[in-house]
Batch of 2 targets.
Target 1
Amino acid sequence: MSILKVTRLGHPVLREVTKEISVKDLKTPTMQKFIDDMVETMKEYDGVGLAADQVFSSLQVAVLEVADNPRYPNKAQVPLTVLVNPKITPLSDEMEEDWEGCLSIPDLRGRVPRYKSVHVHALDRRGKKLDFFAHDFHARVIQHEFDHLNGKVYLDRMRDLSTLSFLQEFARYWMGK
Ligand SMILES: [Zn+2]
């Protein structure tokens, strides 16, 4: 497995709408290795999620996992999940604001409104159908990654930029708020 280079904000690939993957392409050894590399890369940088366009590949695949993560302590755990061609539907209009960061926007945090609960349809890495509900931080991570696959980043979703903070200032002035 290899650690992939992560795209940073400003690279045009982050603003593209990614392409769907056919089940046939998904099952190729190249794509399976790419997914392994995405997982490895997410873990290496302590991410809770990573979308393919964040590693220069404009395809509809995202990985996520919330374990004991130093960047996001005290969050409910989410097992390692691979989402291919995901579609999400909010379960209600209820939204919640919380802090987000992004491996493509290093060293920053900001408060982002997200739907509290979403219904997710996707394929897993073998092409099997996934159909599940996600709530709270799990739903937040999925919406963040889904946005990446549609050329959006969390800054686009902030109501205003007044909470945008570098990590050091975040720890000093905002942690726990
Ligand atoms: Zn991100």
Target 2
Amino acid sequence: MTSTASNPTGATPIKVALLGCGTVGTEVVRLLHEQADDLAARIGAPVELAGIAVRRPNKHRDVPAELLTTDATALVSRPDVDVVVEVIGGIEPVRTLLVDALSAGKSVVTANKALLAENGGELFTAADDSGADLYFEAAVAGAIPLLRPLRESLAGDRITRVMGIVNGTTNYILSAMEATGSGYAEALEEASRLGYAEADPTADVDGFDAAAKAAILASIAFHTRVTAADVHREGISSVTAADIAAARSLDRSVKLLAICERVTDAEGDEAVSVRVHPAMIPKSHPLAGVGGAFNAVFVEADAAGQLMFYGQGAGGAPTASAVLGDLVAVARNRVASGRGPRESAYAELPVRPMGQTRTAYHISLDVADQPGVLTQVAAVFAEHGVSIAAVRQEGRDHEPSASLVVVTHAAPDAALRSTVDKVAGLPVVREVVSVMRVEGEEQ
Ligand SMILES: NC(=O)c1ccc[n+]([C@@H]2O[C@H](COP(=O)([O-])OP(=O)(O)OC[C@H]3O[C@@H](n4cnc5c(N)ncnc54)[C@H](OP(=O)(O)O)[C@@H]3O)[C@@H](O)[C@H]2O)c1
């Protein structure tokens, strides 16, 4: 199988080196083949695969053997290669391969969120030095057109917030916990059995994948280089059935959110806050209805207002759709002897530490059922400068304990953390049943 586009105009073919032929790469090869004529018509020149780099060529019987190579370095440096499409993943050897390709003036299309979140600056510098294109739509939220709208369509606006569900595995697990009342371990096991979680789910459940995507989103939205290390990250492994039940009782859902915000301090100086953590959002919020493995991203901008992007955030064909879209863009640029948008990091905003980021908490306590408990608890909140938005206290029949739920107004995260620690130590507090941030409503 190879791309066999007719070439009535006689335009010079765009030669593509494909690095990786796994879940995504296989679909890229299929679409390139099946849509060869349409792609040629849309670009103004046919696209041809120059070669495909893999680790184990014997595994790839559907691909013409003459295209396969295990020497990605030699493939990338071939003089006839115009564009490199990378769907291997991870940092090395990919970082070196892509820097070499860009430095040699070859445009790059990649789906590699980890590399962009770690070494994006280096790749962009190499692209700028040679005038090559670097496109990476598939790196965040799979098939959903998101980076191009942020990078291009909203380039004339001022984005204030990007908040989304960008990891399908964790959304599947949390949706299952909400639907069945099951605990985290049980829901993860089910997700693994059905193929929604990897054999090693760490990157997903501990929030690394979402943090890399948050770094990319914040970099583009706020014209500032943000790396994965700048992102405050909490995963979902400590979310309990009690947390989900507490959310349900308040008509909220628990979601793992990537939240990128433009924030302003008292002096009027701007910064960015980038975080990934589970949070309760009202059921009426558009993100609350995003179930299963789907992704959705909510964008707020000064002039555009609120926008929502929704769709399949992973999978071979959906991700290949985004890769092909980028390939068409860079090929068109090449045909027009032009270039797509370069990195925009001129704002260089500082990243605000999580402790200083203003969040709101929902805290569910098991307390002694006796007079004065609420006063003691409220005093701790006041001591830390945390103001309370709502309190609900319910006694339990025939039991000496009561349930006390406190929802706070927004306060610095560090103050909220200290408040919870101090409340947990009060003799009248038997147990801190659930602590979760609250998002998606006016504080
Ligand atoms: N899968 C998704 O749904 C999805 C969604 C969005 C983004 N992405 C991103 O897309 C990229 C690819 O993901 P994937 O799921 O397609 O991965 P995958 O199924 O594991 O495929 C990886 C491919 O890379 C090849 N490879 C690995 N190391 C290599 C090396 N040193 N030299 C040459 N080839 C090498 C493998 O060769 P062999 O086949 O011979 O082992 C395989 O074909 C990753 O960056 C991922 O984060 C994936």
